[in-house]
Structure formats: structure tokens, C-alpha cells
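Marked as duplicate of an earlier ticket. Keeping the data here for the record.
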Amino acid sequence: MSQLVAPGQKLIEEQLPDGRRVYRSAIPLLGDLPDIFARLVTWAAEQPDKVLLSEPGEGARRSISYSEALCRSRTMRQRLAGLCGLRKGDCVATLAPAGIDALVLKLACLSGGFVHAALPPFPFRDGVESETTKPFVENAKPRLIVAPPGHPAIEGMDAVSLDELARDGTDGTAPEADEQASPDDWAAIFFTSGSTGAPKGVPITRGMISSNQGAIAAMWPFVAETPPVLVDWLPWHHVFGGLDNIFKVIWNGGAMHVDAAPGSATIEATAKLMAEVAPTMHIAVPLGLKLLLDRLEMDEDGARALTRKLRAIFFAGAGIDAELWRRLAAFRDSHGDFQILSGYGATEAASTITLSPAPLERPGELGHPLPGHSVALADVDGRSELRVSGPNIAPCYLIGGRRVELPMDEHGFYRTGDAAVLRQRLDGVAVFGFDGRLAEDFKLSSGVKVRTGPLRAGLLAQCAPLADDIVISGENCDRLVALVFPSAVGKARLEEIGARIAGWNAANPSGSTVIARFDFAAAPADRAKGELSDKGQIVQSRYLRNHANLFEALQVGGGQAPKGA
């Protein structure tokens, strides 16, 4: 069996003449990395009939092989160039969800040198230009908008139906050669969530894709030596699913099986699909992991079927709570020979900045910088901001229809806005650990700084497994208040949650940690109002804005005081 992680993983620290300390991985990043489309061409020649991607269908699933994907993408490229008049560098914006035709369009853009821009579905649900859709269109400047069949944008925004564009009229032979590409060419535009303002476009170059996938394979050789088989529901308008996961599959000659988003109505079908295809790696966010564990902890046969070829479960290291970690670790210890890995990234870094150098010991580990990249910790108001430099960093933002520089420091490091600490694992390996988001911090009226990320994590651990999430408020006020989202089990034990918070207050009595009053959320966060991300996590800043009256009422005596406080 191939090694999970590369041997010799070590964090190298360097102190520069100006006193700064920067860190890099001891694992090198190979030079002259191939282009991602060249990887598709290679696999189409070496394994033409292997399934590249499958999607749900009426009855049986539909699939496309490597050779079919190459041929159909080149045919679609010809249509884009011939019928639509596109030339290299032109942008194609798409509203198509993950699937075979969406993949063919993505690959056709690579073949023709077009820029692929994945638009988020919700702002465009009515298919008309509006103030909500304006930032996306203004920043991407698409020559063509492509929508799934029947989408209102086909009439409202003159979008082209993907169904028509993807009609397979080939005879099985590949058309003329692909457009010449360079690492600096833009391959895609993705958009940040916009939770703190208008969404920003982030151009992703072909070189960013190659360096990202080459670095991942260097740190985690198992993804190259055991081609990844993924069951994946993550949306393709985010870099996690629509850039990193699908290109991880293509880079390493694996297969992706597109799944429905996790939910009580879909989890049975997900478990069945996993049993059928035997994933080698499961890449997930906390929402999906919770639902999967709910299903598999009660089904020994299903758990064995899922894990029979599983090498790793991966999640973003900053986003898992203590109770979910306990359950996940227990599942790992009871089933199969897989490990838990994590990482950390951003849209501005083609998805990935750090990865685990070894299986996780505990949640919150961000790992080591990708090979070929450097990370620095810079003091920002008493905390250490994680900053990164390397080939993964995007060339600019797209804001207001213009190119705008990323927030770079004076040394050319991208400022992530996230805090991190350097800590030793029990096995002696030094790793970066997540320490909250700087933008979520605020000050009380006393001037005391509240570190929202660590406070929220501590409260969730204190209340586990009774609370799914907690939103904390108090900026420019005298005290902290909180809104608790009880879990299914917590809804029957509300009084105990109050006692848990009182216990937290007793152990953490400073003004920056004590919760003076709290209440229980009457309804889940609303995705339609931007309160819930596509990864199933509450967007704290948006929720606070949308429910300002609720938190103001808590400040003046609404809700309840923690029991015993």
C-alpha cells in the first residue's frame, strides 16, 4: 500500500535579516509541472475507457470516460469559438451545477484558453439582471453566459442552454489541436462569499492549478499512487469542489461521482453510492460528516462497505467542533485502515495553503505550508496573522469591473485575515493551528478585545453535543450575549445548556468571555438571506446584521441569564 504522507515532512524556520520568521515545508515542489489539460490528454491516452465522472440519472447513473471527456470538450471548444465567436482570454460564465455537461464546458474552456467563471446559483435564480447579480457580471465580463436547460436566465439574460451547447455530434475522433497555454493564463474566476461586503472575483491561473495539485501530490503521495475515487457533493461555484476536488481527480487519473447535497432525504442514497464505488478519499465539511456519521454509526455493514478502500477523510481543519471530532475519531478507530487529514486555504490561493504533514492528533490543526510556498506569522493587535507567499497566490481581485491588488504586506505576503499559532503535536511535529478570524474580533465598550473564534469554539466544546452553533454579539456594548442553535438532542435539554454556559462563565470569568444573557434560535439560519454558507456553516457577520434587533433585545434584558449566574 502506498504511503499516506511523504517521509521527511519537516517545518523549516528561517529568520530573515529584518527579524521576521518565515516557514516552509522540507518537501520540494517539482519544477516544470504540466498543465492540467495536458494531464487530461495523458490519461485519455493511457486509460481511455476509465470513468472520469458520473452523475445521478433517471434509474442508472450516467458517466463519461477520459477519452469521451477529451473528445467532447474539444468539440464544445470548436462550438464556442465557431458559433459563439469566442477567442482566447474571453470569459464564459456558467450557472450549470456539477455534472457531466458542466465538466465538458469546464474542459472546453481549458482547451480553447477561455476563462471559466462559475456563478453562484442563488443571486441568479430569477434569471434577470439586478443589483444582486451586477457585481458578478461586472467583474467577470462574460462574452457568454451558459445556463442549464429551462433556467430563466436563458430568456432573461440571453444565456445559452448548456443542453444545446453540449450536444454530442462527434464521431469519436478528436478535433484540431488545443490552444497554446502558459502558466500565467487565467483559467477560471471564482467569487468570494461576500459575507463582509460585495463579492470579489478571484482569477485563477493555470500555473496556480498546477502548483496546487503538484504540491498536494508531493505531500500526500497516496493521491497519486492510489488515484482518488471521490463521492462529492460540494458545489462547483466554490474552489473547494469546482477547482480543487475535480482537478485533483484529473491530475491523478481518478474518478469523481457527483452526489446530492447532504440531507436527511439524501443520506441513504449517499451511503449506497459509497458502498458501490468504494471511495479512496472522502473530502467533506462538518455538515456532511455529521449526517454521514449519523447514518453509519448505526449500520456496521454500511460502515465496512464505505471504508474498505478508504485511505483518508479530509476536512478543513478550522471548522470542526469538539463533539464531531470525538465521533469521527471513534469511527476511525473502529472501522478500517484510514486516517484523518486536514488543511486550510482560501479562494485567493487556488483553494490550498497548508496541509497535514501527518494524521491529525486533534482538530484545529492547519498543518504545514504547501511545498514551494512560505508562511509567516505577523503580529496584528496582539495576535498572529497567517500570511502566505508562493505560486498559488492569485494575481489580483476583480472589483467594480477593475483589477485590484490583493491585501499584500510590504514583503509580498498575502494577508489571509486569519490568526494562527505554531504549536507542537504530541509526536513532536510542529504545525500551525487555527486561532480564529481577525475580522470576527471586536471590542466591548470598555475597550476589551473579544476573540470571537476561540470563544465560540470554547463554548461549543462546553455545550457539546447539545449545541450545533452559537452566534456571539457585544461590539461596543458593556457585555456579551449569545444565540444558541440547539442540536436535535439539545432541544430536549435546554435547561442543561444554560447550566453549561454558567459553568463556562465560572471557569472563564473575564469580561471578554462571560456570556451575560442568551437565548435559543427559533429557526435555523436562512441560506436565502446569506446566513448559511454552501458548506453548511453560519456566516456570523451576516447573521448579526440580519438579526440586529434580536441581539439588541438580549443586551437590554431579553432571553435569560445562564442558570446559576
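See parent ticket for discussion. The longest strand covers residues 414-424.
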